[in-house]
Amino acid sequence: MRKIYLILIVLFQLSCFAQNKELLYNFTSIPQSSLVNPGADVSYKFYFGIPVLSGISANLGSSSFSAYDLFANNGIDFNDKVRNVINKSSGKDKAQVNQQLEIFSGGFRVGGEDSQSYVSFGVYQEFDFLMYVPKDPAILALDGNRDYIGKSFNLGDLNVRAEVLSVFHVGFHKKLNEKLVLGGRAKLYSSGANATSTKNSGYIFTGQSAGTPNIYNQIISSNLELKTSGIATFTKDEYEGSIPKDIARNTFFNGSLGLGIDAGLTYYFKENLQFTASIVDLGFIRHTKDIETLTYKGTYNYQGVNPSFDPADDPENVFDEFEKAIPRDTLYNKYTTWRPTKFYSSLQYSFGEARYDGDCNCKGKINRKYVNSVGGQLFMMSMPVEPFVALTAFYKRSIFEKLDVKATYTFDSYSNKNIGLGISGTLGKLNMYLLVDNILEYKDVSKANSIAFQFGFNFVFQNSED
Question: Measuring CA to CA, how many Å separate 252 from each of 32, 48, 222, 245, 262?
Answer without folding.
Answer: 21, 21, 37, 11, 21
